[in-house]
Design brief:
The protein is of the alpha+beta class. It contains three helices and five strands, in the order E-E-H-E-H-H-E-E. The chain has a single domain, classed as Roll (Ubiquitin-like (UB roll)). Strands 2-1-5-3-4 form a five-stranded mixed beta sheet. The mean pLDDT is about 95. Bound molecules: FE2/S2 (inorganic) cluster. FE2/S2 (inorganic) cluster binds next to loops.
Amino acid sequence: MTMVTFLHPDGTTALAVEAPPGTRLLDLAQAHGLPLEGTCEGAMACSTCHVLVAQADFAKLPKASVHEEDMLDFAAHAGPTSRLACQIWLQAELESLTLHLPAGHTNMQGR
Ligand code: FES
């Protein structure tokens, strides 16, 4: 199990929950009501699932694909540890993972 913590932009905890290997980060966030729109449902066509990985955890994740990197160019508030939550699956060896919700998203649904 991985202890996954999502932090609000102000640093307060939005969600802290354990999840099993194979869980996709976007699905976990949405199941708990976090504001990750995920408009394209993982097709890497929207960037509304953008999160910022904690610096200490960034290197623990498999590298982003070139396509993911390209999509991150469209993400609002992107930084050097930005990832798309639809492209991160928890792995058994990952004990903990901390993520920051960005201060805003590129809104694809006009809400
Ligand atoms: Fe659209 Fe992740 S859900 S890029």
